Amino acid sequence: MRTTVWLVAVALLGITVPAGAQERKVEGYVGGGYSAIVGEARDHTGDAGVFQAGVQFNFTPKLGFRTNYDYSALGKEKTVLLPVSPTPGASTSLQEFSADGHMHDVTFDLVMKGNSAARAVPYGLVGPGIFHRTVNLTTPATGFTTICDPYWYVCYPVAVSVDQVIGTRSSTDFGMNFGGGMSFKVGERTSVYFDVRYIYVWGPTFDVPAVGSNPARSVHGNAQAIPFTFGVRF
Question: Which domains are assigned to the chain?
Answer without folding.
Answer: 26-76+101-133+169-233 (2.40.160.20)
